[in-house]
Design goal:
Layout (H helix, E strand, L loop, with lengths): L3 H8 L4 H8 L3 H8 L7 H11 L3 H4 L6 E4 L2 E3 L2 E3 L3 E4 L2 H27 L1
Antiparallel strand pairs: 1-4, 2-3
Helix pairs in contact: 2-3
């Protein structure tokens, strides 16, 4: 699924490299932002609207869902605490798909156990 930002960029005939150059960042950095892997700051949204000659509502979408995990990761060790991790929608969708597949496998395992 394309984001509003991707759709506008494509409709204007611009590559990720083109937009990255317009806003003064590398193409890989812009790509991560466009795909929701890295958060776009308020000043970056404002710059994008100016450079793409659009209003914010044309390109802005809500941030991906946030999951709270009861762990604080420091280096290779875990400490007690709570941190917020932003998980992009495509990862949440993949997790949901894996959960459904896992449920089917568990049902099949139970069916085979019952058969024995």
């Amino acid at each position: 699924m394309k984001t509003k930002l991707q759709e506008i960029r494509i409709s204007k005939g611009l590559s990720q490299e083109d937009v990255a150059n317009l806003v003064g960042m590398t193409q890989p950095n812009y790509s991560r932002k466009e795909n929701g892997l890295t958060k776009i700051s308020k000043p970056e949204w404002e710059l994008l609207t100016k450079k793409l000659d659009v209003i914010l509502e044309d390109i802005y979408e809500e941030e991906p869902k946030t999951t709270i995990i009861d762990a604080n990761i420091k280096g290779n060790s875990f400490n007690s605490g709570i941190i917020n991790i932003t998980i992009p929608d495509f990862i949440l969708n993949y997790i949901e798909l894996l959960q459904k597949q896992n449920e089917k496998l568990e049902q099949e395992i139970q069916r085979l156990k019952d058969f024995l």
